[in-house]
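Reproducibility note. Readers wishing to regenerate the assembly model reported in the main text can use the exact inputs given here. Chain order matters: entities are listed in the order in which they were concatenated for prediction.
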Amino acid sequence: MWSTVEGRFALSILLVWVFMAVLSLVWTPQPLWATDGQQVWQKPSHNHWLGTDGTGADVFSWLMAGSATNLLICLLTVACAAALGILLIAATVSRSALVANTSIVLVDALISIPTVLIALILAVPLGASVVVIVLACGLGYGLNLARVARPQALLAARSDYVIAAQVSGASAGRILVSHILPNIMPVVAVQLSLSAGSSVLAESGLTYLGVGVSSGVPSWGHSLATSVKLINVYPLTALWPGLLVTLVVLSLNLFGDSIGDAIDPQSNSALREAA
Amino acid sequence: MSLVVEGLSVEISGRQIVRNVSFQVADGERVGLIGSSGSGKSMITKAILGLLPEQATVNGSIRLFGEELVGIGEEKMADLRGSYMGAIFQNPSDSLNPVLTVAQQVSLPLRLHYRLSKGQRQQRVESMLDEVGLDGHVAGKYPSQLSGGQQQRVAIATALVTSPKVIIADEPTTALDAITQRSIIDLLTCLVDRSGASLLFVTHDFAVLSRVCQRSYVIDHGDVIEGGNTQVLLQQPQESVTKELVKAARTLTLHVSNHGQ
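Running the prediction on these inputs yields the following structure tokens for the assembly.
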């Protein structure tokens, strides 16, 4: 993965993201709630590296603290999507025709419901929170994963090597874990990395709509939502979170491509040579 | 008797694929099933291995060392597969998992049926690879890095690593070139004889069958139409389908001989 320029770029950005998120838990350049009415819309300076927003709060500190929230949302969403997606894939490749057909119909029906609509429905009982984003995105991306990986999973399930594993005495569970999932892992990895990137975008969008991260919790979506209204007055505060979201989403997508290539022995010559 | 099949019928979605098939494989015997494509011979092996699709209806009896396999639960069948029965398939490049190394594939039946330490497993895998004529360094390779012949040797090693009592080979040489075919056949018969296992060999080629099996059954439209000593079948075929199969094998051999001259 480190051998390609894209892989190096993506990994570097993601490592910086994780580092900033962890660091923000113990330190930020300026206290988050240190606002100063005399210091609003400040340009980048020694004290405020990316300037200040309309309340005089330090933009860099808020983005840094927001990176932790976004990382948490991203990881939880990917975990939910992976769990749901793999569960549905397991049902799709089940030897029981009833279970397989039911899962296919279920996925095809539910996938038509937009993630935003799911979030709006969930926000009614739960209110605006991280949980709404994670559940809505986890459900949407999990269904998407099951749909995208379905053809490859079915091909793998009907392959001779799965029959050979059955002949060796492998159980259905073992066949799924040791034979089907490793063979669809490049598709799953790429799809989950796309989901990770989409969750960052979704957080921004849903927070802007008022059903995402609750007010007062730092997040990139929150920074965008508060600054975008005044983009005509001071465009820089909207630029920074926008740039950050773009950079991270791009890196997650490139990371997915690189990891997909890296774990596939058929496409990775280095892996074959190492063997 | 290692394997006794009596009155076996298989129906899938209202279509009769196998009709009232009966045959036996004695301990240490090499028996062949021959028939043209679509005759139902592979369906018979699938029925024996319990690999028929869910919608298939099976009637009759399949007994492995006296134990009835028809209607046996999946869990019990999984215990028998790999330990008492091994199978080799037609296309080695498809029957080996592309993301597992040779060592991982060969050791799978050992992991599933025996409580061995990692070292013991590794030792058994290396010894099995040696028996099928592969170097130890092949153990860490992926199937895509091996030739067709090497892949089939790995498949044979996987099928034989637990020393099963019955081996089912479903057209194991069809996807290979003539030279590799011959070496794989010789290797398979040698290993089967050495282990004392019984072999059920499925093919559509009489030339291959005559080299492997003492006794054979001819299958046509899911039915056994003729059976007996392979050499007798080859020299005095009674049924028209058998005559066609023998003629096809002879014509191809003759063609090769003439071409050689």
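We highlight two features of this model. Chain B has one domain: 3-260. Residues 240-260 of chain B form the longest helix (21 residues).
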